[in-house]
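Input set for joint prediction.
Command: fold jointly, output tokens.
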Amino acid sequence: MSGIIPETLLRPEVLALSSYHVANADGLIKLDAMENPYAWPDVMVGPWLARMREAEINRYPDPEGFDLKSAIRASEAVPVEVDLLLGNGSDELIQIVLMAVAKPGAVVLAPAPTFVMYRQIAQSLGIECHGVPLREKDFSLDLDAMLEAVRRLRPAVVFIAYPNNPTGNLFDRQAIEAIVDEAPGLVVLDEAYAPYARDSFMAWVSSRKNLLVMRTLSKLGLAGIRVGYLAGQPRWIEQFDKLRLPYNINVLTQVTAEFALRQRWFLDEQVNRILADRAALHEQLSQVTGVRAFPTQANFILFRVEGMDADQVFDGLKAKGVLIKNLNGAGGPLRQCLRVTVGTEYENGRFVATLNEVLNSGPPPCWP
Ligand SMILES: *Cc1c(COP(=O)(O)O)cnc(C)c1O
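tokens >
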């Protein structure tokens, strides 16, 4: 059939989407994506390659990921009566949960600003996504507004990132408990930054029938292999499992993730170093004139600049070899805001020095 074009064939939701933009980081100090900056120590690489050599890549992977799930349970304090669903990154789990609830009229709720994939995936499925603004002064949860929206919209799913991305803060725990109690549908607590935070809802999953906790190994240090997991009561997990494509976690990923979690000490050492460097970076950033660094419980810091346009600060850093994330385009409470991932001590030092250069070399102030 000639003359066929996407605009006439595809769903309007698809045509309306834009693809997830990833900046090119070639040759730059990469502090834009919340990656752990450290490679594996040599003592781990040898034994890991020995395990990889045994992996049977001519065979399909274990469809259930049984050994990897056991390793997750052993390393992450998942309650015994809670089931796990593995995803190719937690992005895939967001998609599975949303596919499961995508009835006509279904609504998703989340604080705003938050992780963009909740909205992106909801839109792709024709689900309406409502954002409830965080308080402008400190990005805290507006509990009254959240509860009001929950009662009015009766969302099928409420997504709450704990700590939140891109703001980095941990919301008030009691506020989240109140939302879980009030919600007529599911509440997904996205604990992507759990390794860097001092709190978790994992222990609660067994006692709250509408609560799911989602985690990922990406921010811990395994972003390249794509593993996320969803912890929930068996009645939910068994339904979601029907939507998971068979063999979604490949053989090399299963072997690598299991190996890493069984030898967690080296990842924990890296996390501890990042936590110490986070404190130092926050301190240094706070001392830069014209910068306000927000508190963080994640491996990144949100900061606001004044006296120079944030787009110019971002471009200036990039031109001098440092890539961070520009959030200015999102507007609202994120105007003039940028987000930097905690890197190595060297990278953090380069970032702060370069930021100082950029802020001091900007266009001279404009006199009327
Ligand atoms: C990075 C991130 C994710 C996605 O993690 P993947 O497992 O790499 O897909 C999910 N939620 C939040 C809040 C994130 O910041």
